[in-house]
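Entry 12.
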Amino acid sequence: MRNETDLKQLFMEHYDRMYTLARLMLHDDEESRDVVSDVFAAIASGTVVVRPEGAGGFLLTCVRNKCLNRLRAMQVRQRASRLLQLDDTVEMMPFEMQTDRLQQVLDFTERELTPQTLRVFRLRYRQKKKYAEIADELNINEAAVYKHLAQALRKLKNHFNP
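Predicted 3D structure (tokens):
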């Protein structure tokens, strides 16, 4: 900015429209004033140069961009906050209970899955084989492997997480 008088004139002419735009975007008086102040601070420091012709549109664009940056930052903070709240609800299960639960799952699979589905399930989760390896070993296609695993997981979920 060339001088303080020019800055004051820009402020007097454009502040109301800039504030109104910020208020429409942010729905918060304090945040809106901060955004407009940040724009004028950037002009005063020389970081942003405003030409007299088209100053109104330029200033509104600056406000819009600052508002979008603020909204993006707020969304990130809100998402992080929600994730932290979710992490607080995780309960640690003692090791003995975990092994009991695992044994329940294994007993259920032995009892409720068909022999072929049980073979596919064991190859995938005990021996860590890939779908193609399971298909070759059992002489079936990969789509059948997928269907057997989907059926096994569906039964497990329905039984343990109704």
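Annotation: Helices lie at 4-26, 29-45, 55-88, 95-112, 115-125, 131-138, 142-160. Residues 55 and 114 are 75 Å apart (CA to CA).
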